[in-house]
Amino acid sequence: MKRIPVDYTEFSLPFFKTVYAEEQEESADNAKDDQDDESEEDDDDENAGPLSKEDALEAMQDLIPSFVHPIGSVEDTVENWTSWLSEDHFYLIPWQGDDFQWALFRISWDDNWGKWEWESLARIREVKDHREAALLMFNGWMKTCSMTGPQYQPYKDLINDFS
Q1: What is the rounded distance in angstroms from the CA atom of residue 28 to the CA atom of residue 34?
Q2: The pLDDT of residue 40 is above 50
């Protein structure tokens, strides 16, 4: 059986941008400060306050190109020495460059910091079918993260429903 090359190293995509004002580049903040000094007009958008969890997710999803395949979402409560909410939205994108055909990424809720984050998960070579690529990368990612117990069944169900 031929081994399919899957790469789990971190990568970035052009739309992996923050939607949180406090994380915008400092130069953008400085430019805005200079502009504010020149004008005393109020802008309702600037005074709107931080984004809600739902609005931030929607803003990030709006950055994703239309040709990306949504795989689905998993929401779970993780129980350990404490408990926290885990919410992940998974996507498959055709990859251009580095001889890869597909990439897997997610938008993940960080319950500790109270914000959404982009996370690159895997890239794959030599697979043309998007469903096969998603299944191979997703299952391989779960294995690299030691997500093998019954508590990870929602993740297994998600990828099996997609493929």
Answers
A1: 10
A2: no
Separation between Cα atoms, residue 29 and residue 163, nearest integer Å: 44
Identify the bridge partners of residue 94 per DSSP, sorted by sequence position: 102
41-66 burial, b for 16+ CB within 10 Å, e for fewer? eeeeeeeeeebeeeebbeebeeebee
The answer as to whether 59 is a domain residue is yes
Residue closest to 103 by CA, chosen among 74, 76, 67, 75: 67
pLDDT grade for 25, boundaries at 50, 70 and 90:
low
Half-sphere exposure of 92 (CA within 13 A, CB side): 23
Counting the structural domains of the chain, the total is 1
**Choice among 26-35, 46-55, 58-67, 110-119 with the minimum mean pLDDT:** 26-35
- Asked if the structure places residue 16 within a domain, the reply is yes
pLDDT at 106: 96
